[in-house]
């Protein structure tokens, strides 16, 4: 509750003395999300991770965990959108590209999956193998 109050005060311009800076509140909310995930309460963790990324837009670990929650809760579309946001922060983020390739493949979006694996490049043997497999599925050499 203390973290939520601090977030409200920070959003209001820090009207109270000693209000935590938004970065600190984002970290507190991220940790609260982690605790909820550990307790198996993924749906309750989502707003905490959303708060963290909305206040720290380059907080990749919060994006990863948010995408995980969406996927496990059955919302693959939101998981994909979350990983795509990571790529706006870091266009060559290996974890996001790998997860997008996997999710695109699962959804039957072979062109997008191939694109993700191509960005991972020749230096990643697993990505290279998956790229070859997907291109074979499409009937390409």
What does this structure look like?
By secondary structure, the protein is an all-alpha fold. It has eight helices and no strands.
Number of H/I helices: 8
The multimeric state of the shown protein is: single chain
Give the class from helix and strand content and strand pairing.
Answer: mainly alpha
The CATH class of the largest domain turns out to be Mainly Alpha
* C-alpha Rg (nearest Å): 18 Å
Unreliable stretches (pLDDT < 50, length at least 5) are 1-17
- Overall average pLDDT: 87
Strand content: under 5%
Order of helices and strands: HHHHHHHH
Number of strands: 0
What name is given to the CATH topology of the largest domain?
Answer: Serine Threonine Protein Phosphatase 5, Tetratricopeptide repeat
Overall number of domains: 2
CATH-scheme architecture of the largest domain: Alpha Horseshoe
Helical percentage: over 70%
Describe the secondary structure blueprint for this structure.
Layout: H1 2-11, H2 22-38, H3 42-55, H4 60-72, H5 76-89, H6 94-106, H7 110-120, H8 125-137
Helix pairs in contact: 1-2, 2-3, 3-4, 4-5, 5-6, 6-7, 7-8
């Amino acid at each position: 509750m203390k973290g939520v109050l601090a977030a409200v005060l920070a959003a209001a311009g820090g009207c109270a003395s000693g209000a935590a800076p938004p970065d600190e509140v984002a970290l507190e909310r991220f940790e609260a999300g982690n605790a909820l995930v550990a307790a198996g309460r993924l749906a309750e963790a989502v707003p905490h991770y959303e708060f963290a990324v909305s206040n720290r837009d380059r907080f990749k670990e919060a994006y990863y965990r948010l995408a995980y929650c969406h996927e496990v809760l059955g919302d693959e579309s939101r998981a994909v959108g979350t990983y795509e946001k990571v790529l706006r922060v870091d266009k060559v983020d290996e974890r996001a590209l790998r997860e997008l390739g996997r999710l695109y493949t699962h959804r039957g979006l072979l062109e997008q999956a191939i694109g993700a694996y191509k960005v991972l490049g020749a230096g990643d043997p697993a990505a290279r193998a998956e790229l070859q497999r997907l291109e074979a599925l499409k009937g390409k050499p």
